[in-house]
Amino acid sequence: MLFLRIYRSPLTALPGPKFTIFSGLWLMYKEFTRQRRKWLHQLHLQYGPVVRIAPNEVSFASWDALKEIYISGGTGYDKTSFYDLFDNLDEKNMFTTLDKMTHATRKKRFVDRYNKSTVMQPDLVSVVRENAGLFIAKCTESNSADIYVNLHCYSIDCISHHLFHPYGFHSLTDESDIPKMEEITFYDALVEHYLQYYFPKLMALKARIIRPKDRQHGPIASHVLNLVRGGPETDSSAVLHKLKNHKESPDDLYIASECMDHLLAGTDTAGDTLCMLMYHLSLPSSYPTQQKLHEELINSPIDTFDDLPYLDAVLKEALRCWNPAPMSLPRRVPSDGRTIAGVFIPGDTIVSCQSYTLHRLDTEVFPNPDEFIPERWLHDDDHTARNQLMFAFGAGGRMCIGKHLATLEMKVLLQEVYTHYRTKVADDMTACMDLDDQAISSRPKGQKCLLQFEKYSD
Protein backbone atom coordinates (compact mmCIF):
# COMPACT_ATOMS: atom_id res chain seq x y z
CA MET A 1 0.00 0.00 0.00
CA LEU A 2 2.84 2.41 0.83
CA PHE A 3 4.43 1.62 -2.53
CA LEU A 4 1.17 2.31 -4.37
CA ARG A 5 0.59 5.57 -2.48
CA ILE A 6 4.06 6.81 -3.33
CA TYR A 7 3.88 5.61 -6.91
CA ARG A 8 0.54 7.36 -7.49
CA SER A 9 1.74 10.65 -6.00
CA PRO A 10 1.86 13.56 -8.46
CA LEU A 11 5.46 14.08 -7.33
CA THR A 12 6.44 10.81 -9.04
CA ALA A 13 6.08 12.46 -12.44
CA LEU A 14 8.37 15.39 -11.55
CA PRO A 15 11.97 15.58 -12.78
CA GLY A 16 14.58 14.23 -10.38
CA PRO A 17 16.63 11.14 -9.52
CA LYS A 18 14.44 8.01 -9.51
CA PHE A 19 15.51 7.00 -6.00
CA THR A 20 14.03 10.19 -4.57
CA ILE A 21 10.57 8.79 -5.33
CA PHE A 22 11.03 6.25 -2.54
CA SER A 23 13.59 7.62 -0.08
CA GLY A 24 14.94 10.81 1.41
CA LEU A 25 18.05 9.12 2.81
CA TRP A 26 20.35 10.53 0.14
CA LEU A 27 19.09 14.03 0.86
CA MET A 28 19.71 13.43 4.55
CA TYR A 29 23.25 12.24 3.79
CA LYS A 30 23.92 15.38 1.74
CA GLU A 31 22.65 17.55 4.57
CA PHE A 32 24.80 15.95 7.27
CA THR A 33 27.88 16.18 5.01
CA ARG A 34 27.36 19.86 4.11
CA GLN A 35 26.55 19.12 0.47
CA ARG A 36 22.84 19.94 0.23
CA ARG A 37 23.32 23.32 -1.49
CA LYS A 38 25.77 21.99 -4.10
CA TRP A 39 23.76 18.81 -4.71
CA LEU A 40 20.51 20.74 -5.27
CA HIS A 41 22.26 23.13 -7.61
CA GLN A 42 23.67 20.26 -9.67
CA LEU A 43 20.20 18.69 -9.83
CA HIS A 44 18.72 21.95 -11.13
CA LEU A 45 21.45 22.21 -13.75
CA GLN A 46 20.59 18.66 -14.83
CA TYR A 47 16.79 18.63 -14.53
CA GLY A 48 15.73 22.28 -14.73
CA PRO A 49 13.81 24.63 -12.42
CA VAL A 50 11.62 21.93 -10.80
CA VAL A 51 13.29 18.97 -9.05
CA ARG A 52 11.96 16.29 -6.71
CA ILE A 53 14.59 15.77 -4.01
CA ALA A 54 12.71 13.41 -1.62
CA PRO A 55 9.33 11.61 -1.60
CA ASN A 56 7.68 14.66 -0.03
CA GLU A 57 10.02 17.52 -0.98
CA VAL A 58 10.47 19.57 -4.15
CA SER A 59 13.02 22.26 -4.95
CA PHE A 60 12.16 25.13 -7.33
CA ALA A 61 14.32 27.73 -9.04
CA SER A 62 12.19 30.26 -10.92
CA TRP A 63 10.48 33.58 -10.38
CA ASP A 64 7.00 32.03 -10.77
CA ALA A 65 7.77 29.51 -8.02
CA LEU A 66 9.39 32.09 -5.73
CA LYS A 67 6.37 34.37 -6.10
CA GLU A 68 3.89 31.59 -5.30
CA ILE A 69 5.77 30.04 -2.38
CA TYR A 70 6.98 33.19 -0.60
CA ILE A 71 4.80 36.11 -1.75
CA SER A 72 1.29 34.80 -2.52
CA GLY A 73 -1.19 36.13 -0.01
CA GLY A 74 1.44 38.58 1.20
CA THR A 75 3.64 36.13 3.08
CA GLY A 76 3.42 32.93 1.05
CA TYR A 77 3.06 29.49 2.58
CA ASP A 78 3.53 28.64 6.26
CA LYS A 79 6.94 27.51 7.45
CA THR A 80 7.82 23.93 8.33
CA SER A 81 9.03 22.48 11.63
CA PHE A 82 12.58 22.96 10.32
CA TYR A 83 12.46 26.47 11.77
CA ASP A 84 11.94 25.11 15.29
CA LEU A 85 15.72 24.57 15.22
CA PHE A 86 16.22 28.32 15.55
CA ASP A 87 14.15 28.88 18.68
CA ASN A 88 16.14 30.49 21.48
CA LEU A 89 15.78 29.60 25.15
CA ASP A 90 13.18 27.05 23.99
CA GLU A 91 10.99 29.96 23.00
CA LYS A 92 9.62 31.05 19.63
CA ASN A 93 10.63 34.31 17.97
CA MET A 94 9.35 36.04 14.85
CA PHE A 95 11.70 34.10 12.55
CA THR A 96 10.64 30.71 13.94
CA THR A 97 6.87 31.24 14.03
CA LEU A 98 5.35 28.81 11.55
CA ASP A 99 2.00 30.41 10.68
CA LYS A 100 1.56 33.78 9.03
CA MET A 101 -0.92 35.21 11.55
CA THR A 102 1.37 34.77 14.56
CA HIS A 103 4.28 36.07 12.52
CA ALA A 104 2.36 39.22 11.56
CA THR A 105 1.42 39.89 15.19
CA ARG A 106 5.02 39.60 16.38
CA LYS A 107 6.43 41.59 13.51
CA LYS A 108 4.20 44.56 14.32
CA ARG A 109 5.79 44.85 17.77
CA PHE A 110 9.09 46.19 16.47
CA VAL A 111 9.01 46.49 12.67
CA ASP A 112 9.31 50.28 12.89
CA ARG A 113 12.78 49.88 14.40
CA TYR A 114 13.98 48.32 11.14
CA ASN A 115 12.22 50.55 8.62
CA LYS A 116 14.61 52.34 6.30
CA SER A 117 13.51 55.74 7.59
CA THR A 118 14.52 54.69 11.11
CA VAL A 119 17.76 52.98 10.12
CA MET A 120 18.91 56.02 8.15
CA GLN A 121 18.51 58.42 11.07
CA PRO A 122 21.73 60.47 11.59
CA ASP A 123 22.36 59.13 15.11
CA LEU A 124 22.44 55.51 13.99
CA VAL A 125 24.42 56.26 10.82
CA SER A 126 26.95 58.09 12.97
CA VAL A 127 27.41 55.09 15.28
CA VAL A 128 27.84 52.73 12.33
CA ARG A 129 30.40 55.09 10.78
CA GLU A 130 32.26 55.35 14.06
CA ASN A 131 32.43 51.54 14.25
CA ALA A 132 33.69 51.44 10.66
CA GLY A 133 36.51 53.79 11.71
CA LEU A 134 37.34 51.53 14.64
CA PHE A 135 37.41 48.55 12.26
CA ILE A 136 39.96 50.35 10.07
CA ALA A 137 42.05 51.30 13.09
CA LYS A 138 42.09 47.65 14.16
CA CYS A 139 43.06 46.48 10.68
CA THR A 140 45.93 48.94 10.34
CA GLU A 141 47.65 48.18 13.64
CA SER A 142 50.01 45.73 11.91
CA ASN A 143 51.15 44.68 8.45
CA SER A 144 48.14 42.44 7.91
CA ALA A 145 44.81 41.88 9.65
CA ASP A 146 42.31 39.06 10.01
CA ILE A 147 39.25 40.77 8.62
CA TYR A 148 37.04 37.75 9.35
CA VAL A 149 37.38 38.39 13.07
CA ASN A 150 37.35 42.18 12.79
CA LEU A 151 34.29 42.28 10.53
CA HIS A 152 32.31 40.13 12.92
CA CYS A 153 33.38 42.43 15.76
CA TYR A 154 32.13 45.33 13.65
CA SER A 155 28.79 43.72 12.88
CA ILE A 156 28.09 42.55 16.46
CA ASP A 157 28.95 46.02 17.79
CA CYS A 158 26.52 47.59 15.31
CA ILE A 159 23.58 45.23 15.85
CA SER A 160 24.00 45.14 19.64
CA HIS A 161 23.91 48.96 19.68
CA HIS A 162 20.64 48.86 17.76
CA LEU A 163 19.22 46.28 20.15
CA PHE A 164 20.51 47.41 23.54
CA HIS A 165 21.89 50.97 23.40
CA PRO A 166 23.67 52.11 25.52
CA TYR A 167 24.50 48.55 26.63
CA GLY A 168 25.70 47.15 23.33
CA PHE A 169 29.03 45.39 22.82
CA HIS A 170 32.32 47.10 21.96
CA SER A 171 34.41 44.19 20.76
CA LEU A 172 36.52 46.36 18.44
CA THR A 173 37.94 48.19 21.45
CA ASP A 174 37.10 46.05 24.49
CA GLU A 175 38.71 42.61 24.53
CA SER A 176 36.26 41.39 27.18
CA ASP A 177 33.51 41.48 24.52
CA ILE A 178 35.42 39.37 21.98
CA PRO A 179 34.27 36.02 23.49
CA LYS A 180 30.68 37.07 22.76
CA MET A 181 31.57 37.55 19.10
CA GLU A 182 33.42 34.24 19.05
CA GLU A 183 30.48 32.38 20.60
CA ILE A 184 28.26 33.53 17.74
CA THR A 185 30.75 33.43 14.88
CA PHE A 186 32.67 30.21 15.44
CA TYR A 187 29.84 28.00 16.63
CA ASP A 188 29.18 25.06 14.26
CA ALA A 189 25.60 23.85 14.63
CA LEU A 190 25.04 21.90 11.40
CA VAL A 191 25.19 18.32 12.71
CA GLU A 192 23.38 19.23 15.92
CA HIS A 193 20.60 20.95 13.98
CA TYR A 194 20.01 18.04 11.63
CA LEU A 195 20.10 15.52 14.49
CA GLN A 196 17.44 17.59 16.25
CA TYR A 197 15.37 17.83 13.06
CA TYR A 198 15.42 14.14 12.16
CA PHE A 199 15.77 12.55 15.62
CA PRO A 200 14.04 14.90 18.10
CA LYS A 201 13.21 12.18 20.66
CA LEU A 202 16.80 10.93 20.72
CA MET A 203 18.11 14.47 21.18
CA ALA A 204 15.57 15.13 23.94
CA LEU A 205 16.83 12.04 25.76
CA LYS A 206 20.41 13.16 25.30
CA ALA A 207 19.57 16.60 26.72
CA ARG A 208 18.18 14.97 29.87
CA ILE A 209 21.47 13.13 30.40
CA ILE A 210 24.03 15.68 29.19
CA ARG A 211 23.55 19.42 29.59
CA PRO A 212 23.51 20.92 26.08
CA LYS A 213 26.49 23.06 25.13
CA ASP A 214 24.96 25.41 22.63
CA ARG A 215 24.08 29.07 22.17
CA GLN A 216 20.74 28.57 23.91
CA HIS A 217 22.55 27.91 27.18
CA GLY A 218 25.75 29.95 26.77
CA PRO A 219 27.03 33.36 27.89
CA ILE A 220 25.18 35.24 25.14
CA ALA A 221 21.84 33.80 26.23
CA SER A 222 22.57 34.64 29.87
CA HIS A 223 23.67 38.18 28.97
CA VAL A 224 20.55 38.89 26.93
CA LEU A 225 18.22 37.37 29.50
CA ASN A 226 19.81 39.48 32.25
CA LEU A 227 19.29 42.64 30.17
CA VAL A 228 15.65 41.70 29.66
CA ARG A 229 14.85 40.71 33.22
CA GLY A 230 16.82 43.00 35.43
CA GLY A 231 19.09 45.17 33.36
CA PRO A 232 19.08 48.96 33.35
CA GLU A 233 16.66 50.82 31.13
CA THR A 234 17.81 51.04 27.52
CA ASP A 235 17.50 54.08 25.31
CA SER A 236 14.09 54.64 23.76
CA SER A 237 15.58 54.02 20.31
CA ALA A 238 16.63 50.46 21.20
CA VAL A 239 14.69 47.42 19.99
CA LEU A 240 14.73 46.03 23.53
CA HIS A 241 13.03 49.18 24.84
CA LYS A 242 10.31 48.83 22.23
CA LEU A 243 9.65 45.20 23.16
CA LYS A 244 9.71 45.72 26.93
CA ASN A 245 7.30 48.63 26.74
CA HIS A 246 4.88 47.16 24.22
CA LYS A 247 1.22 47.39 25.20
CA GLU A 248 0.81 43.60 24.96
CA SER A 249 3.53 43.09 27.61
CA PRO A 250 5.29 40.10 26.00
CA ASP A 251 6.97 37.75 28.48
CA ASP A 252 10.69 37.90 29.21
CA LEU A 253 11.64 34.64 27.48
CA TYR A 254 9.98 35.71 24.25
CA ILE A 255 11.72 39.10 24.33
CA ALA A 256 15.09 37.43 24.99
CA SER A 257 14.52 34.91 22.19
CA GLU A 258 13.65 37.72 19.79
CA CYS A 259 16.70 39.78 20.72
CA MET A 260 18.99 36.76 20.45
CA ASP A 261 17.67 35.99 16.98
CA HIS A 262 18.39 39.54 15.82
CA LEU A 263 21.84 39.45 17.43
CA LEU A 264 22.85 36.14 15.84
CA ALA A 265 21.50 36.92 12.39
CA GLY A 266 22.75 40.51 12.44
CA THR A 267 26.29 39.46 13.29
CA ASP A 268 26.66 36.81 10.59
CA THR A 269 24.80 38.49 7.71
CA ALA A 270 26.99 41.57 7.37
CA GLY A 271 30.17 39.96 8.69
CA ASP A 272 30.24 37.01 6.29
CA THR A 273 29.16 38.95 3.19
CA LEU A 274 31.71 41.71 3.78
CA CYS A 275 34.45 39.16 4.36
CA MET A 276 33.81 37.34 1.08
CA LEU A 277 33.49 40.62 -0.80
CA MET A 278 36.61 42.28 0.59
CA TYR A 279 38.64 39.14 -0.03
CA HIS A 280 37.49 39.07 -3.66
CA LEU A 281 38.14 42.79 -4.15
CA SER A 282 41.65 42.21 -2.79
CA LEU A 283 42.58 39.63 -5.43
CA PRO A 284 44.74 40.94 -8.30
CA SER A 285 41.97 40.14 -10.80
CA SER A 286 39.66 42.57 -8.98
CA TYR A 287 42.03 45.53 -8.70
CA PRO A 288 40.23 47.35 -11.56
CA THR A 289 36.91 46.93 -9.70
CA GLN A 290 38.47 48.19 -6.49
CA GLN A 291 39.93 51.19 -8.30
CA LYS A 292 36.63 52.01 -9.97
CA LEU A 293 34.91 51.89 -6.59
CA HIS A 294 37.58 54.13 -5.06
CA GLU A 295 37.14 56.72 -7.79
CA GLU A 296 33.39 56.87 -7.29
CA LEU A 297 33.81 57.24 -3.53
CA ILE A 298 36.41 60.02 -3.57
CA ASN A 299 34.26 62.02 -5.96
CA SER A 300 31.08 61.77 -3.90
CA PRO A 301 29.97 63.53 -0.69
CA ILE A 302 30.14 61.30 2.36
CA ASP A 303 26.39 61.42 3.00
CA THR A 304 25.52 60.06 -0.48
CA PHE A 305 26.63 56.48 0.31
CA ASP A 306 23.11 55.13 -0.28
CA ASP A 307 22.86 56.75 -3.73
CA LEU A 308 26.11 55.65 -5.36
CA PRO A 309 25.43 53.39 -8.35
CA TYR A 310 28.74 51.53 -8.43
CA LEU A 311 28.86 50.94 -4.66
CA ASP A 312 25.31 49.64 -4.90
CA ALA A 313 26.23 47.38 -7.82
CA VAL A 314 29.29 45.99 -6.01
CA LEU A 315 27.19 45.14 -2.94
CA LYS A 316 24.35 43.62 -4.95
CA GLU A 317 26.79 41.43 -6.84
CA ALA A 318 28.40 40.35 -3.57
CA LEU A 319 24.99 39.37 -2.20
CA ARG A 320 24.26 37.48 -5.40
CA CYS A 321 27.54 35.56 -5.33
CA TRP A 322 28.03 35.09 -1.58
CA ASN A 323 24.66 35.47 0.05
CA PRO A 324 25.18 34.51 3.72
CA ALA A 325 21.96 32.45 3.64
CA PRO A 326 22.20 30.57 0.31
CA MET A 327 20.37 27.45 1.49
CA SER A 328 16.76 26.37 0.94
CA LEU A 329 14.02 28.18 2.87
CA PRO A 330 11.39 25.42 3.28
CA ARG A 331 7.65 26.01 3.29
CA ARG A 332 4.65 23.65 3.56
CA VAL A 333 2.05 23.55 0.79
CA PRO A 334 -1.50 24.28 2.10
CA SER A 335 -3.60 21.17 2.72
CA ASP A 336 -5.66 21.42 -0.47
CA GLY A 337 -2.56 21.63 -2.69
CA ARG A 338 -1.31 24.37 -4.99
CA THR A 339 -0.09 24.79 -8.55
CA ILE A 340 3.50 26.04 -8.48
CA ALA A 341 5.28 27.05 -11.70
CA GLY A 342 2.66 25.14 -13.70
CA VAL A 343 2.92 21.95 -11.61
CA PHE A 344 0.28 20.74 -9.14
CA ILE A 345 1.84 19.97 -5.75
CA PRO A 346 -0.20 18.05 -3.13
CA GLY A 347 -0.93 19.53 0.28
CA ASP A 348 1.69 19.18 3.04
CA THR A 349 4.53 18.76 0.53
CA ILE A 350 7.70 20.61 1.54
CA VAL A 351 8.72 23.11 -1.15
CA SER A 352 11.54 25.62 -1.29
CA CYS A 353 13.88 27.78 -3.32
CA GLN A 354 17.55 28.31 -2.54
CA SER A 355 19.11 31.65 -3.39
CA TYR A 356 22.37 30.04 -4.52
CA THR A 357 20.54 28.51 -7.48
CA LEU A 358 18.10 31.36 -8.12
CA HIS A 359 21.15 33.63 -8.52
CA ARG A 360 22.78 31.33 -11.10
CA LEU A 361 20.43 29.01 -12.99
CA ASP A 362 18.96 31.41 -15.55
CA THR A 363 22.00 32.45 -17.60
CA GLU A 364 19.92 34.82 -19.73
CA VAL A 365 19.29 36.89 -16.61
CA PHE A 366 22.72 36.25 -15.07
CA PRO A 367 25.27 35.56 -17.84
CA ASN A 368 28.53 34.03 -16.56
CA PRO A 369 26.83 33.41 -13.22
CA ASP A 370 29.94 32.22 -11.38
CA GLU A 371 31.85 35.42 -12.15
CA PHE A 372 31.81 38.55 -9.99
CA ILE A 373 30.57 41.27 -12.38
CA PRO A 374 29.14 44.36 -10.61
CA GLU A 375 28.53 46.03 -13.97
CA ARG A 376 25.63 43.64 -14.67
CA TRP A 377 23.55 45.67 -12.19
CA LEU A 378 24.15 48.89 -14.13
CA HIS A 379 22.52 47.62 -17.34
CA ASP A 380 18.91 48.49 -18.11
CA ASP A 381 18.20 45.24 -19.97
CA ASP A 382 16.70 42.48 -17.78
CA HIS A 383 16.68 44.88 -14.81
CA THR A 384 13.29 43.60 -13.61
CA ALA A 385 14.22 39.94 -14.01
CA ARG A 386 17.47 40.40 -12.07
CA ASN A 387 15.71 42.04 -9.16
CA GLN A 388 12.93 39.44 -9.15
CA LEU A 389 15.44 36.59 -8.82
CA MET A 390 17.50 38.41 -6.19
CA PHE A 391 16.70 36.38 -3.07
CA ALA A 392 19.54 37.43 -0.75
CA PHE A 393 17.13 38.66 1.95
CA GLY A 394 14.21 36.44 1.03
CA ALA A 395 10.94 37.82 -0.36
CA GLY A 396 7.42 38.76 0.66
CA GLY A 397 6.15 39.59 4.12
CA ARG A 398 8.63 37.21 5.78
CA MET A 399 11.76 38.54 4.14
CA CYS A 400 14.68 39.51 6.39
CA ILE A 401 13.56 42.37 8.62
CA GLY A 402 17.18 43.52 9.06
CA LYS A 403 17.80 44.15 5.36
CA HIS A 404 18.11 47.94 5.67
CA LEU A 405 20.36 47.83 8.73
CA ALA A 406 22.66 45.24 7.14
CA THR A 407 22.82 47.29 3.94
CA LEU A 408 23.69 50.41 5.92
CA GLU A 409 26.50 48.61 7.77
CA MET A 410 27.97 47.16 4.58
CA LYS A 411 27.80 50.34 2.50
CA VAL A 412 29.27 52.56 5.22
CA LEU A 413 32.14 50.19 5.90
CA LEU A 414 32.97 49.81 2.19
CA GLN A 415 32.82 53.58 1.83
CA GLU A 416 35.16 54.18 4.76
CA VAL A 417 37.66 51.52 3.66
CA TYR A 418 37.85 52.10 -0.08
CA THR A 419 37.78 55.88 0.07
CA HIS A 420 41.07 55.85 1.97
CA TYR A 421 42.67 52.44 1.43
CA ARG A 422 43.42 49.80 -1.15
CA THR A 423 43.40 46.23 0.10
CA LYS A 424 45.46 43.23 -0.95
CA VAL A 425 45.50 39.59 0.09
CA ALA A 426 48.34 39.11 2.57
CA ASP A 427 51.26 36.93 1.50
CA ASP A 428 50.67 34.56 4.41
CA MET A 429 46.94 34.15 3.71
CA THR A 430 46.35 30.40 3.28
CA ALA A 431 42.87 29.89 4.78
CA CYS A 432 40.20 28.39 2.52
CA MET A 433 37.56 30.89 1.38
CA ASP A 434 35.12 28.35 -0.06
CA LEU A 435 31.59 28.54 1.32
CA ASP A 436 31.04 26.19 4.26
CA ASP A 437 27.37 25.39 4.78
CA GLN A 438 25.42 25.44 8.00
CA ALA A 439 21.74 24.47 8.16
CA ILE A 440 20.55 27.73 6.61
CA SER A 441 23.64 29.92 6.26
CA SER A 442 27.16 29.65 4.87
CA ARG A 443 30.48 31.18 5.84
CA PRO A 444 34.13 31.11 4.69
CA LYS A 445 35.41 27.62 5.42
CA GLY A 446 38.73 28.68 6.95
CA GLN A 447 37.09 31.38 9.11
CA LYS A 448 40.18 33.50 8.63
CA CYS A 449 41.03 36.11 6.03
CA LEU A 450 44.30 38.05 6.12
CA LEU A 451 44.41 41.32 4.17
CA GLN A 452 46.83 44.22 3.93
CA PHE A 453 45.57 47.81 4.03
CA GLU A 454 47.56 50.40 2.06
CA LYS A 455 46.57 54.02 2.56
CA TYR A 456 46.19 56.18 -0.54
CA SER A 457 48.49 59.17 -0.61
CA ASP A 458 46.66 62.47 -0.16
Automatic annotation (TrEMBL):
Q: Which cofactor does it need?
A: heme
Tell me which residues bind heme. Answer: 400
Name the domain of life: Eukaryota
UniProt entry keywords in alphabetical sequence: Heme, Iron, Metal-binding, Monooxygenase, Oxidoreductase
Q: Which Gene3D superfamilies match?
A: Cytochrome P450 (1.10.630.10)
Task: Indicate yes or no for the key word Metal-binding.
Answer: yes
Pathway assigned in UniProt: Secondary metabolite biosynthesis
Which terms in the Gene Ontology molecular function aspect does this entry carry?
Answer: heme binding; iron ion binding; monooxygenase activity; oxidoreductase activity, acting on paired donors, with incorporation or reduction of molecular oxygen
Q: What is this protein called?
A: Cytochrome P450
